[in-house]
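Researcher: Here's a chain I'd like modeled. Treat it as a single chain, no partners, no ligands.
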Amino acid sequence: MNERNRRAFLIGVVGTVAVFAVLFFAVGARRILESLLSADPSLVVATFVLALCWLAAWSLMLRTVLASLDVDISISTAFFVYAGAVFANNVTPFGQAGGEPIAALLISKVSDSRYETGLVGIASVDVLNVVPSVSLILAGVGYYATTATVGESLETAVGSAVALIAAIVFAMVLVWRWRDALIDRLPAIVAPQLGRLGLERFDSETLEEDLSDRLGRLFENIERVAMDRWRLATAVGLSLAGWLFQVFALTAAFAALGYSVPPSVLLFVIPLANLAGAAPLPGGLGGIEAAFVTLLVPTTGIEASAITAAVLIFRGAVYWMPVAIGGASVSGFGVNALR
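Model: Modeled as a single isolated chain. Structure tokens:
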């Protein structure tokens, strides 16, 4: 790990500890611990099994996307590769934004494909996951509004999420619209700057040609994924299945503590809370937990300590379990995720 990455990682860890300290202080650490100790072990196990189903669904999604790029990997390899990608996302700041380059390197290594192919593969999975998440947010909030009053904080959260997603989609449309201009002009701007970052052994002209070639292949691969409509529909279906498995997992976590939460609430809370993964914390750790508690307390009426305990069980399944599996996978594949 270089000095800059080490500093960013340490700052993220300090931020995570601070967020958890505030959360435990505000809710009550003793009450949270008492709730955790009262959990039904069989339902805790069910939470982890359902989380494995989520991980399997999204690994099949990655395999489907890679197949549209003529990259063929086995189901088991896809599972461990995607677990490695989740591990990379969870140990780098800014979630997917920090982990995608590492995940792309992992994919290219195990599949013997180009780096930009792996980058398109994992980026496509992340982008396609937005489609069902937006649908679940709108459907969940719409149904919730028919049974209860939507509070101002929830309206703000939903509005902010929709605005953020719309801005991302708009930016992607602009990039795609002007892709030819980017291929022609961006390398000429970036190549001289790379020489200042320790790449002096390559002349600017060679770097410019290489970058232009890589950008061209990147956009070609994106187009191939978009044009394969059958696999695209399959990938979106697997994404939806993964989100639903997360809903079932969090439902099981609450059931382990003796509580029942309407699925309509979890349909929009889970994708909304996951937006906190964009915070400069390792995989959004701390920020996502706080977002869950903030959203679930007013929408369920359950005491904050029980909600926090259920969220910790759930996050143990969808965060820490993939970290353990993915960390072992990354190590086994010989990729250094923190360099």
